[in-house]
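Retry 2 of 3 after timeout on previous attempt. Resubmitting structure tokens to design endpoint.
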């Protein structure tokens, strides 16, 4: 039974925000309600039940204005901090001699699922890029393919059990690879954690040849195990599925965004966003059901009634949609009061089939910056009542994350008065992605975790530009030479319909 005193813990805000990540606020409330005084749970167990990334659990758990947050630990070996240890000791949760959480008081995955009334769900299939070490022998990849395995270099690492937790992995790596620089330690910890704790049987694994001209796909068929007789000491068995006909990334039609991920300089890279598209590229085995179709973005065609309501020709509407298919950003420009914003909003609703939750509008102004647009630190009150700072996503980041969850549907960001802000200051490193959607950039606040950030093709940007407002000289190429733009440029400009006849320029 759930104690009424612990039913919600004042976690309404947390539940609302995690809903954006999990889509299941009710489950979160039930799981949190199980953590009554004197009990505890691990971050990975909560993440497994809610089917979210463990970092999501801890990020929001730290914001709960309740003692419930002190009952979630990163790993079962020890509390995360002295403050958490003190709180758990006060509730008699720690063993007196060792100071470790009492296993008898642990809220297990099974208990959480029983409270939810659900059987153990089949976890969603993930996909991973795992590289054969560049420092290993030249025939290492061939050994992977012949022997049916893949792995990561862990020759100096002590044996760790699966589920050891991210913090436990980090501490072990820092101790066993103390000769590495700080950045290398962080990367090594990340790849060991992903391979040991996050990868599961049934996941897809992709590995490139050293020359980059062949990509091999396989299915993970075992848990992790340490071995002393192979170059890569931490391995998993893999059933390789396309050794006879590897994917050629230069010739074959590969998923959007994969090229950028291939450039990430990490040993293990999360490709889960591309899992369905990669599965669709596998050869179909005899008697096996066909793979799921490749996800593709569909934009609706012109609507004669909409064109009539907007007092434009259907051909103009068709031209704009075709331009967005070719280059997914477009700007309407012209004198003030000529209906640019109205037109942009109507077009956005048409593209999203009237789904207003897929349309976001922001208005630029001279003080607008990257921290407002994408992500930045904002003052927040901590759970101890003291002021602090929290990294908060802006409208562009939220639009991108929503688009990733729904890759076959367009999500539109309308930027009103786009030329009133300093675009270099607002877009920062993201400006590169407007032209190169399949590439990656590394975010200045490091929230891409070294995996790189991509801009999905289903994020459409529609801007409006007032030609009376002076164009800042430091806006860069985005607003320079707009009349010579065309389909080959970063942004397609469309002359406002009330200034001159509408056409793509």
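Retry 2 succeeded. Sequence:
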């Amino acid at each position: 039974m759930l104690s009424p005193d612990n039913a919600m813990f004042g976690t309404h805000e947390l539940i609302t925000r995690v809903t954006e990540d999990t889509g299941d606020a009710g489950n979160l409330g039930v799981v949190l309600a199980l953590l009554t005084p004197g009990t505890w749970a691990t971050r990975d167990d909560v993440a497994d039940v809610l089917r979210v990334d463990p970092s999501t659990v801890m990020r929001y758990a730290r914001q709960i204005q309740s003692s419930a947050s002190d009952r979630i630990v990163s790993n079962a070996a020890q509390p995360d901090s002295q403050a958490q240890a003190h709180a758990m000791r006060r509730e008699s949760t720690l063993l007196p001699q060792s100071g470790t959480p009492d296993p008898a008081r642990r809220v297990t995955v099974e208990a959480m699922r029983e409270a939810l009334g659900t059987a153990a769900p089949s976890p969603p299939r993930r996909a991973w890029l795992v590289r054969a070490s560049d420092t290993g022998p030249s025939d290492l990849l061939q050994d992977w393919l012949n022997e049916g395995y893949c792995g990561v270099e862990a020759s100096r690492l002590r044996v760790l059990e699966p589920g050891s937790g991210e913090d436990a992995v980090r501490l072990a790596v820092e101790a066993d690879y103390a000769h590495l620089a700080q950045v290398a330690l962080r990367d090594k910890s990340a790849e060991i954690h992903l391979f040991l704790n996050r990868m599961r049987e049934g996941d897809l694994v992709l590995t490139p040849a050293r020359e980059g001209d062949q990509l091999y796909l396989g299915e993970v068929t075992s848990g992790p195990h340490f071995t002393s007789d192979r170059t890569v000491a931490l391995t998993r068995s893999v059933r390789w599925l396309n050794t006879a006909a590897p994917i050629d990334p230069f010739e074959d039609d590969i998923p959007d965004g994969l090229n950028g991920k291939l450039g990430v300089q990490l040993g293990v890279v999360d490709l889960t966003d591309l899992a369905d598209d990669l599965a669709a590229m596998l050869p179909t085995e005899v008697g096996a059901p066909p793979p799921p179709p490749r996800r593709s973005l569909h934009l609706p065609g012109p609507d004669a009634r909409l064109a009539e309501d907007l007092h434009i020709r259907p051909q103009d509407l068709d031209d704009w949609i075709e331009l967005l298919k070719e280059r997914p950003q477009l700007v309407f420009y012209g004198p003030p009061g000529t209906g640019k914003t109205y037109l942009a909003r109507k077009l956005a609703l048409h593209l999203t089939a009237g789904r207003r939750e897929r349309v976001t509008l922001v208005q630029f102004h001279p003080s607008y910056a990257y921290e407002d647009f994408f992500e930045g630190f904002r003052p927040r009150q901590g759970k101890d009542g003291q002021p602090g700072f929290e990294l908060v996503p802006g409208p562009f980041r939220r639009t991108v994350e929503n688009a990733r969850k729904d890759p076959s549907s367009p999500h539109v960001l309308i930027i009103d008065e786009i030329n009133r802000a300093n675009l270099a200051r607002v877009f920062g490193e993201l400006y590169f992605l407007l032209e190169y959607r399949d590439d990656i950039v590394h975010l200045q606040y490091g929230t891409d975790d070294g995996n790189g950030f991509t801009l999905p093709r289903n994020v459409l940007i529609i801007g409006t530009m007032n030609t009376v407002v002076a164009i800042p000289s430091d806006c860069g190429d985005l607003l320079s030479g707009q009349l010579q733009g065309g389909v080959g440029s970063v942004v397609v400009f469309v002359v406002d319909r009330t200034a001159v006849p509408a056409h793509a320029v």
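Attempt log closed. The chain is about 30% helix and 15% strand.
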